Amino acid sequence: MALLTLDEAKAQLDIDADSYDAELQAYVNGVTDAIEAHVGPVEHRSVTEVHDLPSSGAQVLVLRETPAVSLTSVAAVLSNGSGYAVDSLDLDGAIGTVRRLDGGRLYGPLRITFTAGRGEVPATINLAARIMVQHLWRTQYGSSRGLSGIGGGDDASVNEPIAGWGYAIPFRVLQLLEPYKRAPAVL
Q: Mind listing the pLDDT tens digit of every residue in the chain (187 residues)?
């Protein structure tokens, strides 16, 4: 499951030829990284995190990468520690909390391996990725190179930098991503 495919990007830019495929694929890959930096993992991937827990244990452990799809393993980091069977734990994937089903405390440090991402790409995130590729493509192939017919003309949607994002992400993309924005982290 890709956040954005090459064919979707070509459709957004009204490109029929294959001559730009290699370059356009780099844009698609770059947009995926930028979108996921804003909303968290979209494409499924394996993530491993190490969590130090207080010596008194913790009732809830909060994963740093969300959303989480499933737990793969919860192992002790130290040789005298103990891990947990994933079927004895509850994962709330949307917020990334892990707790024991029996209500007990978790002791660590623990090395947690899990799958992060979303079941499918929400249409709004896909649209945001399409618009972002179009915006970036226009900065490369605008009217100054005589190629304004490829991917459209001017894009006046970003005329001043957005804090933390510069000129790369238009306001309309950030607005589309807002419902999926990462929550502030507490580490």
A: 688 999 999 999 999 999 999 999 999 998 988 898 889 899 899 999 999 999 999 999 999 999 999 999 999 999 998 999 999 999 999 899 999 999 999 998 999 999 999 878 999 999 999 999 998 888 776 544 444 555 444 444 445 555 655 566 788 898 999 998 887 665 4
Structure tokens at 40: 């968290």
> If you search the block for the tokens 């954005």, which residue do you land on?
4
**By C-alpha distance, which of 31, 38, 112, 26 is closest to 71?**
112
The residue written with tokens 């004895």 in the block is 88
Using the structure block, give the residue that is written with the tokens 């494409």: 43
Bond prior to 41 in cis (omega within 30° of 0): no
Nearest-5° angle of CA 50, CA 125, CA 24? Answer: 95
Report the DSSP pairing between strands 110-116 and 97-100.
unpaired
In whole angstroms, give the CA distance from residue 14 to residue 134. Answer: 10
State the DSSP code for 88.
Answer: G
Separation CA 11–CA 9 (nearest Å)? 5
Model pTM score: 0.74
